[in-house]
Design brief:
The chain has about 425 residues and is an alpha+beta fold. Helix content is about 45%, strand content about 20%. It is built from 13 helices and 15 strands. It has helices at about 1-20, 25-35, 35-40, 45-65, 70-90, 105-120, 125-130, 135-150, 155-175, 180-210, 255-265, 300-315, 350; strands at about 225-230, 235-245, 245-250, 270-275, 285-295, 320-330, 335, 355-360, 370, 370-375, 380, 390, 405-410, 410-415, 415-425. It starts with a helix and ends in a 7-residue tail after the last strand. The model is unreliable at about 1-15 (pLDDT under 50).
């Protein structure tokens, strides 16, 4: 048994060493001998310290040429050459040695380190001890680059868990740093790693909500239920799925007769090709989604619908607002995103202020898929004709709320049709 594990380990290491960036004395020497670096070594103690580290590694390689074939040691060395020295010693791309490793080489070390952790079920305490003189910068770089390296933005659960552990380790190591200059740089890396981690965790939650068949539910199942009387004297059943930011579900908001009238009205307007967000947050034209826009001034039915929504929600539109109708074919989805405006964009949309809330009414049934999901809140809503969901993009104080992240799950069979209205701050009577 021991011999077989030993053979397996050697074979595994050989596989790694053939893919890892080769850290040898010649590579390190080229960095040390760079004239540009030598000038900065005399000017900054941080750069001098890094060069001293390289000199120590040259001595290590003299005693053992294969020292850096270990993925954990390789990660530390390659990250130092590809990230730390260019940043600390201000080495531009043009002045960097041609043999210098690149970001992709750091990611190879990270990938192989994760494979070792998973294969041998290594404890994270031992992993951190395997990286010599581990720093907060090392941990944040490991977290960010591990997540960025995932194909098609779909992060393996093990990679996500390991990245989260490195992120937490980085935060704990930051507390031990006394240099304000170093901590300033660490804070930038902390933010980037934190953003990457949060995006990856939310994408994972979103996919879990979409792929596990469920009926509509909130994470907090003690949602408040209430009944409202609409202007036509019909009862609207409302469930508060979340209080802050507010998320409300209106079951049977439109009757079958009202649905038929609205769908007939929609059919008189032409659909056009629409855009949707891809996994990288970019907008692209797609063939699985079409949309149309109907102004209040173009349709009495849409104007009446907006009046009814205002009656039960208190959310107001004006004459320039419109109803957006979207249709998704099989394969259609909308990646998780935020709809509030950042500070520099709050004056957009006819100077109506921030986009504070939205209302969406399902106009069709969907055979499989097509749900509405809010990963931060654990909310999933199954499409049902006539049902309306209202969510706020800001908290009770009117501040942009990251918890309002939402998306449309992939349609697996059938068509999904929904009507959406956006509500802007300056149209609201109170907030």
């Amino acid at each position: 048994w021991i011999i077989s594990v030993f053979i397996c380990s050697i074979a595994f290491q050989n596989c790694f060493s053939s893919n890892l960036f080769e850290v040898d004395k010649e590579t390190l020497q080229k960095f040390i001998e760079s004239k540009y670096i030598k000038v900065l070594v005399a000017q900054t103690t941080d750069c001098q310290s890094l060069i001293s580290t390289l000199e120590g590694w040259i001595l290590r390689l003299t005693n053992n040429p294969l020292s850096f074939d270990n993925p954990f040691l390789n990660f530390k060395a390659v990250k130092t050459l590809a990230v730390d020295i260019p940043r600390v010693c201000q080495v531009t791309k043009q002045r960097k040695p041609s043999s210098a490793p690149k970001k992709v080489d750091v990611q190879k070390s990270i990938k192989m380190s994760i494979e070792i952790i998973n294969l041998y079920d290594k404890k994270m305490k031992k992993v951190f001890e395997s990286i010599p003189n581990i720093t907060a910068s090392d941990c944040f770089a490991f977290c960010s680059l591990a997540l960025e390296a995932q194909e098609e933005n779909v992060v393996n659960e093990n990679t996500l868990a390991i990245s989260a552990r490195f992120f937490e380790k980085g935060k704990s190591l930051m507390k031990q740093v006394t240099s304000e200059r170093v901590n300033h740089k660490n804070k930038k890396m902390l933010k980037k790693a934190g953003d990457n981690l949060r995006d990856a965790e939310n994408n994972s939650k979103f996919r879990n909500l979409c792929t596990k068949p469920r009926i509509t539910f909130p994470m907090n199942k003690r949602g408040l239920c209430k009944l409202l009387v609409k202007s036509n004297l019909k009862i609207a059943k409302v469930e508060v799925l979340n209080e802050n930011p507010l998320v409300e579900l209106y079951e049977d908001f439109l009757s079958q007769k009202e649905l038929n009238i609205l769908n007939r009205e929609v059919s008189t307007f032409p659909f056009k090709t629409a855009q949707t967000l891809d996994e990288y947050g970019d907008e692209n034209d797609v063939d699985f989604r079409v949309q149309l826009f109907i102004d209040d001034t173009e349709s009495r039915i849409v104007n009446d619908l907006h009046a009814t929504i205002e009656d039960v929600t208190g959310l107001s539109t004006d004459k320039d607002d419109y109803l957006q109708v979207v249709k998704y074919r099989p394969g259609g989805s909308f990646e998780p995103h935020l709809d509030f405006y950042e500070e520099e964009h709050k004056d957009e949309d006819y100077n109506l202020g921030n986009r504070v809330a939205q209302a969406m009414i399902f106009l069709s049934d969907v055979e499989f898929g097509g749900g509405f999901a809010m990963p931060e809140l654990g909310i999933y809503i199954k499409p049902s004709p006539g049902t309306m969901v209202v969510w706020h993009n800001v908290d009770s104080n009117g501040e942009n709320d990251l918890l309002s992240l939402h998306g449309g799950c992939p349609v697996l069979s059938g068509n999904k049709v929904a009507a959406i209205t956006s509500y802007h701050l300056l149209n609201q009577r109170s907030w």
